[in-house]
Amino acid sequence: MKNKLRYFVAVFIAMVSLLTFSQDLFAQTQRNPVLEEFTGTWCPWCPCGHTIMEQILASMPNAILIGYHGPANGSDPFSFFSGNSVIGMFGVPYWPSGTVDRTGPPNDRGTWQSWMNTRYSVPATVSIDVERSFNKTTREFDATIDFKALTDLNGQYNFTVILLESGIVWAQSGNGSCPGATNYVHKHVVRDMMNGTTGQEIINGSWNTNQVITKTLTHTVPLPGGSGPDMVWDSCDVVVIVSEVSSAIYNSEIQQAVELELVSPDYLATISSLSPDVIIENNGTGNFSATVYNQGLMDDSYYVDVTMTAPNGWTGEYTTPNGTFPFGTQDLVAVSAGDSLPVDLSFSPNFINGSGEATIRFTSMNEPNIFVEKTFRMVTITGVKGLIIDASGEGYADLLLDPVEQVFEYPLGIVTREALYPGIDLTNFALVCWSTGNAYPVLTEDEVDALMPFLDNGGRLLINGQNIGEDIFGASGQSQFAQDFYHNYLHADYVDDVGLTFFFRGIDGDPISGSHLFGFSLSDLYTRSPDQFIPYDASAATLFTFGTYSQYNSIRADDGVNRVVYFGLGLEQVSVDTTRDGLITRAVNWLMNDFVVSTPNENISPVSFNLSQNYPNPFNPTTTITYSIPKESQVNLKIYDVMGREVAVLVNGKQQAGAYEVKFDAASLASGTYFYKLTAGDFISVKKMALLK
Fold it and tell me: What's the CA gap between 30 and 124, in Å, rounded?
């Protein structure tokens, strides 16, 4: 009660000092799409399904993943959960398979990501608010759940409460394409259907917009059956699903779902975003969105801060229900328990080449040590000569940044693979470093279409990752279209998946892997599965052997047009930092040897006149004005008050083509509206700004 009182007083004060918000601003409309997967410890193909689930979660953190182990009460110890007859109701055709939001029968894992993306963009029709408690000793779970219709609904709607556990270490079958392990870590495992196989009814009939229906649940969680391990309560989550009842359970469309910790703190936040990093022209704008989710038991407010690391002259702003604010200005937003709030961001290079990043952070007002943040990266397509691409989905490419910067003397940027839009031109870059980690697919057709002209134009490529060849040449590979690229651009000839050892020896005398690097082992950061391959043509040379065996991994190739270094292992699995960094620096040195990068003017001249909005705006007492001119011009930049009187002259003289920024100090002026006017040759532009003291 004291926590609640303290919270309401704090929120009241914050609201009085800011704005009175409409309740509609906090309505929960963002869907949390649900993937229900059918898997088993006995299933050799199921680890591939688990990998795709983790890739989905990495790109969509609010996704809800549910793993039903079966067949019911079979050899799998996790198939002995209460209500496991639900598996038969789904008519599982094969293992693994899965259904998304119960909008169709279980389907192949290759469909899951696009299916989830489609459902993510469909607004939720119901909001769910859960108050709950769990006694670890008696195993008694109590919940009061409010269900609110966000639109008019009609039919029978049920709610289902499912208990999941993650972090369970137990043996998992696998194969060469989908490796298992004796110490495999299982996630999202169904342990109990807490209110029955198909749940309980919420309503049968008309459910009007904003009508709230409250249900209660008291349930004693049974001990797990079978031979599996006991449950660890702190590793368990509770999922609450609302679905429209249909004759087939896989057609009982889920209206909304929430996932909460079984043992939850009062204040808990998560963040998600589907916005990719961007590669843009230097006169473009990068637009992003991030959503904060209040998953605690209490309502909360969050301080919003956005910081930017970028070249001077880049600008940015973000938008909340309270308004639009320049980066560096703090806002406070309220989010009810179980609700979410999206925030939009944009930042612009303003004709200035380079790379930068913006980080948005939400910090709990009630528990300041609780915060979540998300970083967005942007690189201009001109003026940056090196590009690091993270295709791993795990941030592994970040490990390349420092060693590459040590030896690559030109501007460098880093983005995720999603920044590579169809038709992107990479030929302005001299070096591309590509990390696939353990992700599938290792390449997409659009990525290959971008890499081939880059290499044809004399580009230099460093690519690393395990199972690149296996995914391109394996029977179930997702990148089989890239076989010609593998042969003719990577200059490699695939032999087999996984060598006889995870210890590698360099080739004596080689400039990258020679005797100074006598050998190293791979860590088990993830299941180790490095490919065997050999040079495809005379332009390529082998870099490593698998121990003392006549099996090979990694090559360097120089065909007279381009150069490629292809490490057939994830560099992140080289656990000794100095060994990994040495491999990277020597590879980049070899790639860029004798390569001349043309840099006549890294900040390419603007193609048009432009006057940008000042930032910050409103301001007190200083602000920055940026503008660009495409040719040498007589430039005047002046400030006027609302009566048209000139109050300041910031620029008056001839300037060369380029992008400029000017700071304006209005300490001597009174609060009010002012105008700034740029005259450059025949170009005239006027914009408004507000001084608030």
Answer: 6
The pLDDT, as a whole number, for residue 28 is 44
Q: Are 188 and 56 in contact (CB under 8 A)?
A: no
- Sequence-ordered list of residues with C-beta below 8 angstroms from that of 628, at least 6 positions apart, any chain: 350, 351, 606, 608, 609, 610, 658, 659, 660
Q: What is the mean pLDDT of the chain?
A: 89
CA distances from 689 to 69, 622, 686 (A): 61, 11, 10
- Rounded distance, CA 391 to CA 98, Å? 25
**Distance (Å) of CA 314 to CA 63, 115, 356:** 33, 37, 9
Farthest CA pair distance, the chain: 86
What pLDDT digit, counting tens, does each position of 587-628 carry?
999 999 877 554 444 445 577 888 988 888 888 998 889 888
Angle of CA points 300, 306, 311, to nearest 5°: 175
Strands of 321-409, DSSP E: 323-326, 331-335, 340-348, 355-364, 371-380, 386-390
Give the whole-angstrom CA distance, residue 104 versus residue 646: 68
Residue 324 has pLDDT above 90, yes or no: yes
> How confident is the model at residue 528, as a pLDDT?
87
Lowest average pLDDT, out of 96-110, 254-268, 595-609, goes to 595-609
Residue 426, number of CB atoms within 10 A of its CB? 21
Kindly state the tokens that stand for 153: 């609904």
Q: Give CA torsion, residues 503, 509, 512, 515, to 10 deg.
A: 40
Measured at the alpha carbon of residue 281, what is the angle toward residues 276 and 282, in degrees to the nearest 5? 110
Answer yes or no: is pLDDT of 104 > 50.
yes
Give the whole-angstrom CA distance, residue 391 versus residue 536: 25
What pLDDT is recorded for position 265? 76
CATH no. of 610-691: 2.60.40.2550
Q: Which residues contact 357 (CB under 8 A, 6 or more apart)?
A: 308, 309, 310, 375, 376, 377, 378
Q: pLDDT tens digit string along 22-62? A: 223 233 478 999 999 999 999 999 999 999 999 999 889 89
Tokens encoding 416:
């995720």
Average pLDDT on 422-439 reads 93
- For 267-380, which CATH superfamily applies? Immunoglobulins (2.60.40.10)
Contacts of 23 (CB under 8 A, 6+ apart): none
Specify the fold of 31-264. Answer: Immunoglobulin-like (2.60.40)
Question: What is the CATH T-level fold of the domain 381-602, as seen in this structure?
Answer: Rossmann fold (3.40.50)
